[in-house]
């Protein structure tokens, strides 16, 4: 076992270096020291669930063989961790930027260099190895870098630190989070000024927002008020502050905010200043200090926007467990619904909260059978639905609690987790009023697009279906790809309908009233209705899916439209259009798919999406190439993190998605993209694949195979043959992905061609080549050309043959031979082949020529 440790009173450089080291040593476990610095402690109060941290007593230290030490080289500074480590039994790896000392461990590998922050040393290695990092990881690394270099002002800062900062910004480091949690020391005169300001401050509490107004007058000028304002924000924990400081004959006004709800700029502009909504300043020369201070006090209420409340960001309806629910069942429910914890009820009253960490700890000790009552957190803190986001955030930090049940008149109506808070603070779900779109979908009408891109017959049919739904009080919607394509502006007549009700009953009602037949699928609560016009429509009940384990097939239960859409793969596919008469054409978009389409963005709906179904990664790439879209950074990061899950997915499921992907217009680009994500590595191992051969094959297919024939051919499996061509037993590996006998036939033919002595290449005539290759599929021969990278003369000869053989007319058939009194048998096939060869050699041109040739040679 490998572990990663750092020093006691952990600072951000230590934390960042630990997380960075895990990128180099992915099997290692991160050990959290017994004490952390205050700012790190505050950071972990929000982000702890995003890091896989262990306490020392959770590790079997007898199994530890390697200890990776970061931002430290001596066990003396590890606190309680030191007592667990037998330095004679383990190997040490050290990354540190402090001066070497006699107390340093004897390390197998020690990288100790003078840079501003230890994380710089590890980041250089990560960048050199081309290891990808997420925007969240980049933010943590940047926190370590910024805080240990004083935002690059300390004399210990090197150019290497600055280069790594640029690298982190390029990879999405969030400067807002860095500013919120970083800290720097103050000079003595700065400390005195800051102390005066805080002592002479007044607190204003406005709709959940805490704003500090601090004022002071002195004769001498001290610079750096902006820096002091940032420091004061950290010290006071307020959401915003405004300094009004008179120094000499000038009055300085500096405003800083950490909340999206606060816009300081208008107030500062009124005083002749400028800046940004969260950071603005002004200077008034020869002004009246008390008048300026009064203006700030009077206008402070105008800088606050309406609050985002607990009700806006909570998850609802809330899933709960009883005190008698077993630990094992609670864990399955967490996986099923993607939650990190549940409220616990007893006699319909809230008595506790069980978290994923509680469940994992109990299961680690073999107590999966035990009821949650013994492991839940009791006396849970609850909040009112009207509590502001800022109050929720402060409560989580102050109480170090990760989930808060939301009550309304003593009834639990939802729950807020750290994830909900993080999404609200850092996500892109805010509208102009500052409210979060979670329970209220975007609603616009798409009637005009439906008229433009649906046939008149199908549009009228949808109206009829909507009216029948009204008769039984069902809400009915078209869903899926057709909605996406209507928004994009593409024709799509593949109609799927979901109803909030029993889908099978509704399908039978359609058949009774509009004709046609119904085929039911009871397990999935779906039915396929075949209309008399031969149009097939899938009718489903609104449902949710859950997975018993990663990469498993989903289980299904009835639910609402919102949860039905939430189980979809991407936001662009998670929209519906209502077809009930009074709301016909109304777009229902809970998850911002409409905006993502406008921004050409592929985005998953939740973080476990790729874990639950890794084949969604293949679909993401397919949609990228089909629509010229791109995965957003978080989705791409999640795809890379989940790439290894493809190894747990059945070959037929992977093959199904690959067959669709490789029949699209850009198969080579798709495979390259899968390589970037890391999927290809889990298909072909560490072997490389030849992109040029793939491009050669694609070019030949486009040149030789008609488009319509290409869509129905087995060309897709040839891409796999080329992809696997650098591996051992490549054909056998490809056969695992073959979906039918036609795919197997193509792969077998490629093997035969590769094993052939290539005599057909030495033939001078197309007829002679046809004699050898007549029974081979076109795609098999093209794949052979690409794999062998034939000389141009040979490649052109085979290309000419393939192009000409598609034009061979059927000059004579078996009946013609019977009329010539030739006995039916194997000779028939021989004669017909010779006729085809003669045509290719331009020896005959018509049926008369063919019959003459047969008479001449066989009669």
Protein model, in words:
This protein has seven domains: 2-181, inorganic pyrophosphatase (n-terminal core) (Alpha-Beta Complex); 188-303, Diaminopimelate Epimerase, Chain A, domain 1, CATH 3.10.310.30; 310-426, CBS-domain (Roll); 441-547 and 558-589, Beta Polymerase, domain 2; 600-686, Orthogonal Bundle (Hydrophobic Seed Protein), CATH 1.10.110; 691-805, no CATH class; 814-858, no CATH class. 44% of the residues lie in helices and 17% in strands. The chain has 38 helices and 31 strands. Strand 2 (29-31), helix 2 and strand 3 form a beta-alpha-beta unit. Helix 1 packs across helix 4 and helix 32 (741-755) packs across helix 34. Residues 314-372, 376-432 form the CBS domain. It holds the Pfam family PolyA_pol. Its cofactor is Mg(2+).
Q: Strands, helices and their partners?
A:
Layout: E1 2-5, H1 12-24, E2 29-31, H2 38-47, E3 53-54, E4 66-70, E5 91-96, E6 109-112, H3 118-128, H4 135-148, H5 159-170, H6 175-181, H7 188-199, E7 201-206, E8 209-218, H8 225-236, E9 240-247, E10 250-257, H9 265-270, E11 274-275, E12 279-285, H10 289-299, H11 310-313, E13 321-322, H12 327-337, E14 341-346, E15 349-355, H13 356-364, E16 377-378, E17 383-384, H14 389-399, E18 403-408, E19 411-417, H15 418-426, E20 442-445, H16 447-453, H17 456-471, E21 476-479, H18 481-488, E22 496-499, H19 503-514, E23 517-521, E24 526-530, E25 536-541, E26 543-546, E27 555-558, H20 561-566, E28 576-578, E29 586-589, H21 593-598, E30 601-602, H22 609-612, H23 615-627, E31 630-631, H24 633-642, H25 651-661, H26 667-677, H27 679-684, H28 691-704, H29 707-712, H30 715-723, H31 730-735, H32 741-755, H33 766-773, H34 778-788, H35 792-805, H36 814-819, H37 826-840, H38 847-858
Parallel strand pairs: 1-2, 1-4, 2-3, 4-5, 5-6, 8-9, 13-14, 17-18, 22-25, 30-31
Antiparallel strand pairs: 7-8, 9-10, 10-12, 11-12, 14-15, 15-16, 18-19, 20-29, 21-22, 21-28, 23-24, 24-25, 26-27, 28-29
Helix pairs in contact: 1-3, 1-4, 3-5, 4-5, 4-6, 12-13, 23-25, 23-26, 28-30, 28-34, 30-34, 32-34, 33-37, 34-35
């Amino acid at each position: 076992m490998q572990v990663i440790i750092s020093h006691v009173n952990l600072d951000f450089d230590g934390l960042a270096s630990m997380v960075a080291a895990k990128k180099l040593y992915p099997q290692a476990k991160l050990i959290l020291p017994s004490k952390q610095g205050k700012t790190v402690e505050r950071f972990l109060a929000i982000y702890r669930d995003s890091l896989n941290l262990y306490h020392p007593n959770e590790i079997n230290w007898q199994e530890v063989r390697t200890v990776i030490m970061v931002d430290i080289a001596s066990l003396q500074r590890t606190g309680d961790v030191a007592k667990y480590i037998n330095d004679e039994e383990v190997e040490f790896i050290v990354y540190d930027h402090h001066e070497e000392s006699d107390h340093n461990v004897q390390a197998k590998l020690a990288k100790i260099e003078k840079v501003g922050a230890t994380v710089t040393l590890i980041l250089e290695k990560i960048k050199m190895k081309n290891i990808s990092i997420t925007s969240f990881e980049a933010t943590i690394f940047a926190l370590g870098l910024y805080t240990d270099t004083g935002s690059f002002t300390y004399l210990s800062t090197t150019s290497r630190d600055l280069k790594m900062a640029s690298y982190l910004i390029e990879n999405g480091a969030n400067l807002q989070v860095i500013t919120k949690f970083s800290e720097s020391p103050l000079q003595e005169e700065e400390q005195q000024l800051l102390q005066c300001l805080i002592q002479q401050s007044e607190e204003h509490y406005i709709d959940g927002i805490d704003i500090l107004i601090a004022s002071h007058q002195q004769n001498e000028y001290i610079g750096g008020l902006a820096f002091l304002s940032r420091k004061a924000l950290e010290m006071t924990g307020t959401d915003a502050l405004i300094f009004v400081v008179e120094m000499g004959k000038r009055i300085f006004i500096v405003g800083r905010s950490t909340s999206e709800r606060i816009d300081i700029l208008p107030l500062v502009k009124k005083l002749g200043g400028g800046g940004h909504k969260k950071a603005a300043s002004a200077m008034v020369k020869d002004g009246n200090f008390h008048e300026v201070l009064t203006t700030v006090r009077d206008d402070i209420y105008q800088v606050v926007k309406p609050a985002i409340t607990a009700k806006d960001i909570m998850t609802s309806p809330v899933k709960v467990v009883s005190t008698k629910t077993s630990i094992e069942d609670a864990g399955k429910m967490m996986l099923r619904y993607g939650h990190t914890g549940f409220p616990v009820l007893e006699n319909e009253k809230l008595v506790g909260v069980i978290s994923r960490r509680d469940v994992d700890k109990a299961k680690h000790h073999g107590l999966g059978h035990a009821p949650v009552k013994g492991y839940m957190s009791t006396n849970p803190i609850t909040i009112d639905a009207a509590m502001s986001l800022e109050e929720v955030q402060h409560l989580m930090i102050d109480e170090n609690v990760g989930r808060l049940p939301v009550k309304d008149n003593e009834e639990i109506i939802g729950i807020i987790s750290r994830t909900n808070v993080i999404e609200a603070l850092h996500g892109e779900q805010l509208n102009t009023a500052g409210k979060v779109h979670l329970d209220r979908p975007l609603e616009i009408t798409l009637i005009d697009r439906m008229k433009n891109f649906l046939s008149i017959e199908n549009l009228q049919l949808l109206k009829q279906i909507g009216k029948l739904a009204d008769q039984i009080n069902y809400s009915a919607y078209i869903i899926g790809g057709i909605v996406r394509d209507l928004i994009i502006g593409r024709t799509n007549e593949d109609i799927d309908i979901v109803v909030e009700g029993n889908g099978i009953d509704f399908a039978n009602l359609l058949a009774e009233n509009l004709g046609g037949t119904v085929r039911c699928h009871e397990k999935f609560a779906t039915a396929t209705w075949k209309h008399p016009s031969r149009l097939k429509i899938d009718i489903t009940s609104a449902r949710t899916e859950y997975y018993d384990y990663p990469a498993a097939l989903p289980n299904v239960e009835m639910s609402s439209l919102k949860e039905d859409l939430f189980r979809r793969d991407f936001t662009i596919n998670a929209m519906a259009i209502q077809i009930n008469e009074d709301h016909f054409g109304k777009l229902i978009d809970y998850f911002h798919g409409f905006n993502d389409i406008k921004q050409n963005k592929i985005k998953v709906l939740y973080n476990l999406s790729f874990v639950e179904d890794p084949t969604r990664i293949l679909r993401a790439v397919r949609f990228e190439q089909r629509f010229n879209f791109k995965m957003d950074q978080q989705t791409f990061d999640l795809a890379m993190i989940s790439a290894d899950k493809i190894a747990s997915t059945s070959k037929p499921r992977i093959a199904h998605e690959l067959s669709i992907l490789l029949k699209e217009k850009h198969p080579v680009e798709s495979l390259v993209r899968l390589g970037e994500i890391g999927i290809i590595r889990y298909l072909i191992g560490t072997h490389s694949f030849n992109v040029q051969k793939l491009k050669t094959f694609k070019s030949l297919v486009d040149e030789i195979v008609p488009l319509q024939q290409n869509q129905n051919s087995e060309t897709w499996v040839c891409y796999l043959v080329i992809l696997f061509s650098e591996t051992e037993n490549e054909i056998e590996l490809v056969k695992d992905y073959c979906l039918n006998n036609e795919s197997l036939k193509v792969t077998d033919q490629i093997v035969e061609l590769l094993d052939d002595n290539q005599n057909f290449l030495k033939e001078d005539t197309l007829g002679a080549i046809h004699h050898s290759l007549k029974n081979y599929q076109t795609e098999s021969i093209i794949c052979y050309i690409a794999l062998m990278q034939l000389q141009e003369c040979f490649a052109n000869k085979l290309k000419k043959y393939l192009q000409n053989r598609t034009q061979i007319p059927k000059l004579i058939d078996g009946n013609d031979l019977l009329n010539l009194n030739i006995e039916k048998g194997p000779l028939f096939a021989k004669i017909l082949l010779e006729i085809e060869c003669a045509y290719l050699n331009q020896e005959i041109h018509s049926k008369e020529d063919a019959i003459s040739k047969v008479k001449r040679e066989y009669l």
